[in-house]
Amino acid sequence: MTRRVMLDLETLGLDPGCVILSIGAVAFDEDGLGETFYRSISLNSCDEAALEIDAGTLEWWLEQDENVQEQLVGGDELTEVLHEFSEFYSGAEELWGNAPSFDCEILAGAYDAVNAPVPWEFYHERCFRTLKNLPGAVDLEREGDHHDALDDAVHQARRASATLAGWSE
Question: Is the per-residue pLDDT at 9 higher than 90?
């Protein structure tokens, strides 16, 4: 089986070079979900790496429920989290995002900001947004919280896994 990783980021911007609040990821294949990865990232460490905050995105976060806003505080050092994600991703053949032009590019921008190698090749990137809109794609009831990087990644991976399993029969 192909080892795939579904990625979701919560950020304070929409472009590469923006602050990343958290990284959620889950390994998956046609048989279901595997190990998960979740880390919250310190705003101070993002600032030290010269990652930027988009005012409009920050305003959006401040309009959310208190439990969602909790993602704005705490977290681990950016460099440490990126190193841990690289170890988690090791051995995977595909990195899925919703869409790669957001999640993968922003994460790659963070690796660049700390002068660390990106652990995937551009041709490993896959688009969940495209998959979920194709005829025959499986739609599952949402579990978990919206705007929680791990809950979003798990939901997306469950849908992708079920869709791919149905297509491989």
Answer: yes
